[in-house]
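Q: Give me a backbone?
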Amino acid sequence: MGEVETTDTDSIDRMLRVNVRAPMLLTRETIPHLNEQSSIVFVSSTGAHLGFAGRAPYTATKGAIEAFSRSLAVELAPKTRVNVVAPGFIATPMLTAQCEQAPDLENWIIEQTPTMFVGTPEDVAASIMILACATTSRYVTGSTLICDGGWVAKG
């Protein structure tokens, strides 16, 4: 990830392959096997909702998967629901590595997060489970659930 003018073409192509092309191709192959209770949940990022300098190519791919999910939700209705979870800062190995390189980063993230803590993979998994379950979200499709401790709400 990096600024547009310094992001090489291979990095852009990799982000597009991983974040856009792969979910589209997997979905295409899955559609014939879906039933009346099926649900698809994609993972995006708060980067699709906020401007992050130096991350434009990455955030563009996350915005693309959200646009894809909205159209797919209409296309596959009423048989299948399609939604997205957009995590914010989550305690993953990637964030840990970034915090090791910038020791003040974790404190800054916590100070900027309305909930005052960094989310966990379990927080994201719980959001995905809510959207995947027909009992908890049978009337939800074409939506994005932002799981970010309030970053997007704060602006």
